[in-house]
Amino acid sequence: MKRLTTLLATASVLAASQVSAFAAEITINSFGGAYEEAHRKCVIDPFTAETGADVKIVTAYSADAFAQLRAQKDAPQYDVIHFSGGQEIVGAEEGLLAPIDASKLTNAADLYPFAGANMDKGEGPAYQIAAIGLLYNSDELAEAPAKWADLMEPDMAEGLVLTDISNTYGLFGFLMLNQVAGGDLDNIQPGLDAVKTMLENGAFVVSKSPEIQQAFAQGGTFIAPYASDYAYTLRKAGLPVKFQQGEEGTPASYITANLVAGRDNQDLALKFIDMELSPEAQACFAEALRYTPTNSKTELPEEVAADVAYGEEGVKSLLRFDPAVIEANRADWVVEWNKAIAQ
């Protein structure tokens, strides 16, 4: 009888632990569409399979997710929150995000140094990079464009499409052109002057990424500064478009995974972040969407590597324009941009 009681007690403990494991849940945001599909395939489903924990997904882009985080400061819904616009810098300063001990992440040691530089301050690690470079029609151009400065050549203008700086990728491309023209974040006039000249020579401006696809598809357009992942999108649409990093540097949009402060299941949240940093998850994302991996041990096939900033050589030219400065000035920059392109 005593042995039966012990067995029943053990069974009850096991059953309770199984219920607890399957009842465990974290809440994250993802960006919807193809991104969310890849997120499920590369991280969420493997995480659930390994831990038994459910992942509740709120579809919210960076700005909206950050607004929610601020509004819910005293009772946040998110355990892990993802940003692509640098919101983690402000979130860490405001105490909305928790510092991350790198020793609790098995993949932290394999990250490129820039990717996890401020985890101890609450800024989550970058688990992907959207690299901004030169998209070009390989049927129209015999050689890949080597430099951002090439876009300023008069004979490039007739086939050049620029993207409005209300679009983040368009903004990063413009800031790179501004830097090459001699400007910086305190002075965007050199970039504006360069854009005026490009437009006078035949370039034109679009506002959204589908318009870039339309421009390439209609013919006449053979080069555009934009994100590496979109070159892949265009090729899937049957267009002969490739991605090239410019010699002067590659603007980078960091996609970060952040630990929310004030939640009671941070160990589980950290495990989720750690899985996002794994070479397997990052290779999966690169295969699906052509984002640049931040784990140095990520191995990519040649055709995928050609579309991203890959390996030590590829990532050493990545540069990040200060998100705080961009946030403080963006509205004014848009006004100046609109004046410039209207002339």
Q: Could you please say which CATH topology of the largest domain applies here? A: D-Maltodextrin-Binding Protein, domain 2
Q: Give a count of the beta strands, DSSP E runs of length 2 or more.
A: 10
Mean pLDDT rating: 93
Classify the secondary structure makeup into a structural class: alpha/beta
Radius of gyration: 23 Å
Q: Unreliable segments (pLDDT under 50, ≥5 consecutive)?
A: 1-23
Helix content: 40-55%
Written account of the structure:
The protein is built from 14 helices and 10 strands. It is of the alpha/beta class and 343 residues long. It folds into 2 domains: 170 residues, D-Maltodextrin-Binding Protein, domain 2, CATH 3.40.190.10; 141 residues, 3-Layer(aba) Sandwich (D-Maltodextrin-Binding Protein, domain 2). The longest helix is centred in the N-terminal third of the chain and has 22 residues. It is globular, with a radius of gyration of 23 Å. Keywords: Periplasm, Signal.
Q: What is this entry, summarized?
A:
With about 350 residues, this protein is of the alpha/beta class. The chain has helices at about 1-25, 35-50, 60-70, 85-95, 155, 170-180, 190-200, 210-220, 230-235, 265-275, 280-290, 300-305, 310-315, 325-340, and strands spanning about 25-30, 55-60, 80-85, 125-135, 160-165, 205, 225, 240-245, 250-260, 320.
Element layout with pairings:
Layout: H1 2-23, E1 25-30, H2 33-51, E2 54-59, H3 62-71, E3 80-83, H4 87-93, E4 126-137, H5 154-157, E5 161-163, H6 168-180, H7 189-200, E6 204-206, H8 209-218, E7 223-227, H9 228-236, E8 241-244, E9 250-259, H10 266-276, H11 279-289, H12 302-305, H13 311-315, E10 318-319, H14 323-342
Parallel strand pairs: 1-2, 5-6, 9-10
Antiparallel strand pairs: 3-9, 4-7, 4-8, 4-9
Helix pairs in contact: 2-10, 2-11, 6-7, 7-14
